[in-house]
Design a protein that fits this description.
Blueprint lengths: L1 H17 L23 H31 L6 E3 L7 E6 L5 E6 L5 E2 L5 E10 L9 E12 L8 E14 L7 E14 L2 E14 L8 E11 L5 E14 L5 E3 L1 E6 L5 E4 L12 E5 L6 E4 L1
Antiparallel strand pairs: 1-2, 2-3, 3-5, 4-5, 5-6, 6-7, 7-8, 8-9, 9-10, 10-11, 11-12, 11-13, 13-14, 14-15, 15-16
Amino acid sequence: MRKFIEKFSLLLMLSCVICLVSCKDKSDNPVDPVDPNTPITQQRAMAALMEFAQSSNQFAATVKEGGNNVDATGLTPTKNLHGTKAYPVISCEALENGTWRVVCDYGTTPVLCNDGYYRRGVVNIVTTGFFTTVGTTMTLTFENFHQRGNNWSAQEYKIEGTQVIVNAGHNAANPERIDYNVVVTDGLITYNTKEIQYTETTTRSLLSGSELCDNNWYITGAWSGVSSDDVPYTLIANSTPLHYRICCHFFQDGILNVDIEGLPAFLIDYGYSEEDSDCDRKAQLIFPGIDPIVFDM
């Protein structure tokens, strides 16, 4: 009975960490160090998922920021300031093969951007068109680029790797949705001398509404990586997409399959609800050998 209670408590803590994937940690605080020589326990798994959540947040933030910057240039050979701020400086250069190079220079001192993130360094974008144009492929690379949340005491992360974003057009099964394919290769997040390896292959399907709060995202695909203390993980959302409404801030449906070395595979069911509501915080963790655990995101 005691072992069951211990496992139950650890799984509850683990479930709270996993929900960071859907509900961003505003503090962006780093994970406490864990001795890499210890076995892959629930504690190390929790630390790995916390790092994954932050890595995912960092790369997700560059998608919209990069798209907005590309569209702001009008894809003409110009150099302009972003709004009334001195940084970032955004320049656009036409290339010979019909693509454009957009350089977003945030300077050497962290600058507050419109989305609430502080950034410094350079993001280089090669694009075939506007972010909002069907068929556009944007390839982002990073040059001494750092990013952190909107709290001055928050942890700053250095981002490396290649991020490709494709406006894939109308979803085949649901033509009213627009698909954006996102692939991250050789992703590397560095903070406090720690390194997190990160990869992503996802499709983010947007169902636009008449107002902002009516917008819905449906996300499928896979994330994987290795934590700073060498814990490998894989997360998959395929058969039942993760459903996210812009103004709800919580996944309302979908299944996330979680595979962490040293633990049995388990899943989170975001479609669980105890009341008739289109925006609730309930989800259910299903772990082999014990009854499902209901938790608040």
